[in-house]
Amino acid sequence: xxxxxxxxxxxxxxxxxxxxxxxxxxxxxxxxxxxxxxxxxxxxxxxxxxxxxxxxxxxxxxxxxxxxxxxxxxxxxxxxxxxxxxxxxxxxxxxxxxxxxxxxxxxxxxxxxxxxxxxxxxxxxxxxxxxxxxxxxxxxxxxxxxxxxxxxxxxxxxxxxxxxxxxxxxxxxxxxxxxxxxxxxxxxxxxxxxxxxxxxxxxxxxxxxxxxxxxxxx
Length: 218
Known about the structure:
Elements: H1 3-11, H2 14-19, H3 29-43, H4 46-58, H5 62-85, H6 88-110, H7 125-133, H8 136-161, H9 164-182, H10 187-201
């Protein structure tokens, strides 16, 4: 087979077609490269997300399986839209947004860091991908989002480990704080609300017989 024949075969291959998705004749070399990287990084992970979903489904956790399954359905549709609109900004943002959100949802659905085998660590691919596809300022935004998800997950995990009585006490304190915020900001209201928060947190627990002594509030 001649060199020209090899070149013709490559141009008709799926890899060559994928490399031309979203390209415009007026794109600079840098923009064209970023578009190719965006498609390669986002659509290229589809076999892994399908396998990920199948593993969770076989393990008997359909809710967790549906989350990477959503990515496997959404990404080809989004890539087809990108091929038509050629708007790399929207395509890049939506795909980068899914990368941290989906592992976080899997972590929450499975019950926390330990139960999910720290699957949220895959969310770190978002800022790493942003370094390749976007500027540094937006990458810092994705890094902050990733750290924020870790903090939220850690707080939720700690709350889930508290006994029911303690959680109810925390909810009562939060409700009292909301009441305070809805009232007048005068010093009297602040004092009154502080007393409400303190009294709610000291309210007697309805399950005191089953709670450890250090968690009893009554």
